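This protein record is not my work; I was only asked to verify it. The record follows directly below this note.
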Amino acid sequence: MVKALARLSVVFAVIAVSAFAIQPATAHPFYWPQPTPLFPLPVREDVRPRLDAARVALEKEAWAEAFDILQPVLDAKEDLLVPVAAGAAPRPVLVVSAQAEARRLLSGLPAAGVKEYEQRYGKAARERMREATAKDRLDIYREVACRFPPSDAAAEALLVLGNDALEQGDPVLAAACFGKLLGQIQRADQLAPLSLYRAAVAFRKSGDQVRAQDAWKRLGLKVGKDGLTVDGRKQTLEDLAKELDKTAPLPGTKDWPIYRRNPSRTGQGIGGNFKPVPAWR
């Protein structure tokens, strides 16, 4: 037994000496390499110059050049994280979704850019919409809305998703869908009165009073003396206002006791942009 322990101690001594022998000459005797992250973030530095080039092309109204850069990013099955500069100098670097950044760049297209985009990608978007309608697949509607954001089909998909979320008791998601439509001047002017009313209800329930008032003002400009049919009932603008006043926002709380805050799973957290801070400072 003693001999076995002696041999074992010799083995450990050899391993320890070998471990120190392979350390770099400049390393501390107790140097320990940094561990590899278990879930490394797929940050792609090479995508940032392409997004910058697309931004410049959009400013020059070189639509084809910009779309050739941005659409492959949206068509990719896997999203990537890219560092982008934000704010004035000194400009901090933010890590954002490449697809979200592409959608943000396309969200500000003027009428000429939207028309060019529709000519190039409208057919593919409409084909996916027909498939979503035939199969009644919400995931395909979401794909159309995210993959072809400036298209007419994406606007239709957002309406479907917003109405479904409102009916399913998720006004936060519904408000996000209607908000994207109202954020585009051309789409906001094209919204039907019933869609504007549902948008106002979604904003009111989600606690966004500013956008609720905006949707209501747009509704007032479109609804005449004949009123609007909601849930099979003909109602005047005054009746709709009374119904909207009865719509109470979701109760807010600072606690987060269960998944997504409340039993209806409609809680919304308040967050911001992710700003990496060097740990060595």
Observations:
- The radius of gyration is 27 Å.
- Confidence is low (pLDDT under 50) at residues 19-35.
- The beta strands are 81-85, 93-97, 228-230, 233-235.
